Amino acid sequence: MRYVIVGGSIAATTALNVIRANRPDAEIQVVADEAMPFYYRALIPFLLDNSRIVDDILFTEQPTNDERVHFHHDQCIGVDPGKKMIGLASGTTCSYDKLLLAAGSSSRIPDIPGVASQGVFTLRNMDEALKVREALQGCRNAVVIGGALAGVKMAEALKRTGVHLTVVEQRSHILPFIADTETARRMSNKLCEQGMEIHSNDSAKEILATDGQATGVRLASGKTISADLILLMAGVRPNVEFLADSGIDIDQAVLTDREMQTSVVDVYAAGDMVQIHDAVIGKDVVSALWGNAVHMGRTAGFNMSGIKALVPPLLSSFNSTEIGGLPIISAGLLHTDSSHYAVYTEAQGENYRKLIFDQDRLVGMIFLGDVSRAGVYTNLIRNRISLGERKDALVREIMSALYY
Ligand SMILES: Cc1cc2nc3c(=O)[nH]c(=O)nc-3n(C[C@H](O)[C@H](O)[C@H](O)COP(=O)(O)OP(=O)(O)OC[C@H]3O[C@@H](n4cnc5c(N)ncnc54)[C@H](O)[C@@H]3O)c2cc1C
Predict the structure, then answer these.
(1) Which of 24, 165, 248, 271 has the fewest Cβ atoms within 10 angstroms?
(2) Model confidence pTM above 0.85
(3) Residues 6+ apart with CB under 8 A from 162
C-alpha cells in the first residue's frame, strides 16, 4: 500500500507513526517544505532570546528515512484525485493509494501599506525565527501586531532580549481566544509591570519606513510607535491554495468527516488546515491547536491503515500556557453576553476562576494562577457531560479550592 503525507509537523508525524505501527506493508512518502520540520512549533518564541536552542525544540523521536519511509524536502503544488497523484514544486510527482493532507496554516499578512519593508517579519516557523533572532542584533524598539496567544508569546520572548516592546491588538483586550476581559486585564497588568506596552482597541494602519527600512507603525487612533523590528502576528490562514483544482470540498478550511476523510475518497486531512466541528458551540470552525492536530492525525492514521476510528469531540478554544508568569488553562466558551448561561466567578489574590454553565452542563472555564485539576474539568466540557444535581457541588468544589 502506497501512502503519501503532505506536511511535516505534528498532524503529519502523528499519522505517520500510526500507519507505520499498523501497516507493515506500507510504503510511505512524506512531502514537507520546511528544511527542518519535526519540531514543537509552539516553542519557537524561545529561540528568539536563546532561552532554548534548536535541538531543545526538535521532536524527541525524529522521523528518518528508512526502507519503508522516504522524506522529500519539497512542496506539494497540486492534487489530482483522478490519477491518484500529487505534483511537487521540483517538477516530480508521487502516486498514492491513500493521501493525507496535513499542510497546516500560514501567517495572515494584514493588507496595510509598508508590510514589505525591511525589518517586518512574519513568524510561524523555525526558519523565520532564526531570521528574526539575527535581525534583533542592534534592535531597540519592536512592535508585535496582533495580541493573540502566539503574538503575546513572541512579545514576551522579544521583551526578554531587552528591547522596548509594544503589542497592538485590535480587539478590546489581548488574548481574546484564551481569556475573558478580567483574565486579560490581569495578564496585561503583569506584562505591563514587566515593561511591555499594550495598545488594545487599536490597529496598525501603516508601517512607516525610510529608504525601505521600517521605522515605526501608525495606528488607527493616530498614534505612531517607533520600531526597528515589526512582527506580523495577525492570525493564521489554512494552507489550502494548492487544492484549488483538486475537487476537494473546502469552506474556510478543508472539510472532512469524523474519520478525517475529505469529500474525495482515499484523501484524508488533519490539523490546522481542517475545519473542525466544535463540541461546545456546535459549529464548524477553524482551530489552530496542537492537541486537535494530534487527535486528527491519529484518527486519519488509523482509518488510512484500515482500522476504523472517529475523531473525539474537539474544542476550538482549549489552551494551557503561562503569560507574564501566570499559568492559565481555559476551554470552551469564554465570553457570554446571553442570560441563557449561568456564569460563576471567584478571585483570590492572583488566582481567578470562571465557570460557564448551559443548564447543568459546564460549557466554558478559565483557571488563572492556580490551575490544579483544571484538566479534569475540561473533559466535562469536551464530552458535554450532564451534571444534574451534582452541578452546585462542583461549582462549590472548584471555587472553594482557591481558599485552602
Ligand atoms: C508561536 C506559536 C505558539 C503556539 N502556541 C500554541 C499553544 O500554546 N497551544 C496550541 O494548542 N497550539 C499552539 N500553536 C499552534 C500549533 O502550533 C498548531 O496548531 C500546530 O502546529 C498545527 O499542526 P499541523 O501539523 O496541522 O500544521 P503546522 O504545524 O502548521 O505544519 C504544517 C507543515 O506543512 C508544511 N507545508 C505547508 N504547505 C505545504 C505544501 N504544500 N507542501 C509541503 N509541505 C507543506 C508547512 O511548512 C509546515 O511545516 C502555536 C503556534 C505558534 C506559531
Answers:
(1) 24
(2) yes
(3) none
150 lines ligand 1 (CB under 6 A): yes
Instruction: Establish whether residue 271 lines the binding site of ligand 1, counting it when its CB lies within 6 angstroms of any ligand atom.
Output: yes
- 3-state DSSP call for residue 263? coil
90 lies in the same domain as 124: no
The rounded distance, in Å, linking the Cα atoms of 38 and 59 is 6
- Our answer on whether the CB atom of 9 is closer than 6 Å to any ligand 1 atom is yes
Q: What separation in Å is there between the alpha carbon of 342 and the centre of ligand 1?
A: 35
The number of folded domains in the chain is 3
Measure the CA angle with vertex 14, ends 11 and 17; round to 5°.
Answer: 145
State pLDDT tens for residues 363-404: 999 999 999 999 889 999 999 999 999 999 999 999 999 887
Is residue 293 in some structural domain?
A: yes
Instruction: State if residue 303 touches ligand 1 by the CB under 6 angstroms criterion.
Output: no
The response to whether residue 315 sits with its C-beta less than 6 Å from ligand 1 reads no
Q: Which of 17, 74, 93, 272 to mutate to test the pocket of ligand 1 (most atoms within 8 A of CB)?
A: 272
pLDDT over 80 at 337, yes or no? no
One domain for residues 202 and 124: yes
Per-residue confidence (pLDDT) for residue 64, from 0 to 100: 79
Residue 274 lies in a domain: yes
* Integer angstrom CA distances of residue 56 from 39, 43, 60, 253: 9, 9, 9, 32
Domain encompassing residue 39: 2-106+237-304
| pLDDT bucket at 75, cuts 50 / 70 / 90 | very high
Determine whether the shortest distance from the Cβ of 242 to ligand 1 is under 6 A. Answer: yes
The CATH number that applies at residue 57 is 3.50.50.60
Average pLDDT over residues 148-167: 97
Identify whether residues 227 and 179 lie together within a single domain. yes
Same domain, residue pair 161 and 218: yes
Helix (H, G, I), strand (E, B) or coil at 151: helix
45 CB within 6 A, ligand 1: yes
- Res 335 pLDDT > 90: no
What does DSSP assign to residue 279? Answer: T
pLDDT in tens, 263-318: 999 999 999 999 999 999 999 999 999 999 999 999 999 999 999 999 999 999 99
Residue nearest to atom 37 of ligand 1 (CA): 103
362: domain CATH number is: 3.30.390.30
Q: Which residues of 60-94 are buried (b: 16+ CB within 10 A; e: fewer)?
A: eeebeeeeebebbebbbeebebeebebbbeeeeeb
**Residue identifier of the C-alpha nearest atom 7 of ligand 1:** 42
